[in-house]
Amino acid sequence: MKVVRTVSEADLARLKTARHDADRRYNEALTALDAAILSLPAVPAGPPGPDEAQVTPINQRWEITRALPAHGGWRGRLAGFVIGLIRPALDQQQAFNAAVVDHVNRNVAQQRAQPEALTATIDLLRQHIEQVLAFESRLIMFLQQLTPFVDTKDYEFNGLATRISEDVAEAHDQLAHTVRGLAAALSGVSDDVLKRWERYEGLRTSLATMQLTVQALKRELTREAGAASAPDRAARVADAARTRPRPDAPAPLPSAPARTSARPAAPSVALSSSPLTSHKYVAFEDLFRGDRALIRERQEDYVRLFASRQDVLDVGCGRGEFLQALAERGVRARGIDLNHEMVEQCRTTGLDVTEADALSYLQGLDDDALGGLIAAQVVEHLEPDYLLAFLDEAFRVLAPGSPIVLETINVASWSAFFTSYIRDLTHVRPIHPDTLKFVVVASGFLDADIQLRAPLPESEKLAPAPPAARAVDLRITGDEGRALVALADTFDRNMERLNAQLYAPLDYAVVAWKR
Q1: pTM over 0.70
Q2: Is 169 found in the same domain as 205?
């Protein structure tokens, strides 16, 4: 496709002119704002205080009758006679003087307070004007820094963009040089390195299996030595396979006389039925299924289904991860498994586990004896007739309101089928999710639901078309651009369909209830 430039020289000139015009208008507005800054006006001082020069003499001299003389003899009698004549006038004058003094004293107090309040108001107004002027000056200084601030950001961006382009080019050259060096160094030896790595991984698996072998041998030899006085070896082996209840174990689940199934059923499959070689399947599970922490995390949703139940049975309990999770929630539960080594490992951790066949065990239980049943990664080991008989017995022994959970490999996912399913020698028959749901419902269970589990990360799926495939200007590219976008859309739809088939979740579970 021909590259079309979207920015011409004329566009660049127009943008530069617009930038200069904007700078000019900004500078003119800044200059006008600077000229409009106010100056501090002349603020008058406060008024003077009251004239109090005669206040004290007035207060001292207003009582005129107190200053009248007192003499004896004829003069005193004469003075008393005169004072008696003018006493009413003197009393009126003294009352007038008292009112005047009181009035003067009251006004002096108010006149003292008024200048102080007015002076404080004038000082506060002066401070406010000074603050406004200081703010205007700082505002001008701030506006003057806007242009340098924006310019420095532009300069920094341009510098970083240039540096990034140079760093990318340099890294590309270094990467190309390194790749060429590695290609030259590994030429002829890469196959040998891969073979050595595969040999190392195989050695690790062999050592892990050997450790389990030693543990199984030691356990069985110890058991044989303790039972050496028994007259019949067959009886000792049968006794070792039976459940030995612990003193601290929970009460056993109710049992009933053994029943016979109405339809023929084949026993479930184990990698090895010998106690001395069953550890190999344990090693296989440890290597390919996942560690205990991962399995516990995946089964946490199931724990919530059984949190309010008791007497739960875990069929094919394996290493006991789900039994441990139930025990931590206070749920009474026990497990069964055909693998001798897995049963022994569960017992060493204090779990109540029996080495038994699933169908035979269920046939020995009373009706409504269980509060829940789970079988994780089990049904793919069963023949069809055996599976149907197993479901019939499960429906009989489960109490009303109890859940049943059947988890297995999602064979509708090609990735799961061609890795997890065909990798295990003990798998008998793949079971499609719709098929398992049908046989569960046909056995009497209700509200059956298919839950997809263990999704693959997006990094392992097929990627859609890159965004650049749609980053075209249809006004310029025309039909060629529209054809490219249509091609990208078709590619994405095909990738979605392929991901739905190739990389669907690895497992699924059918969850149903006995109502």
Answers
A1: no
A2: no
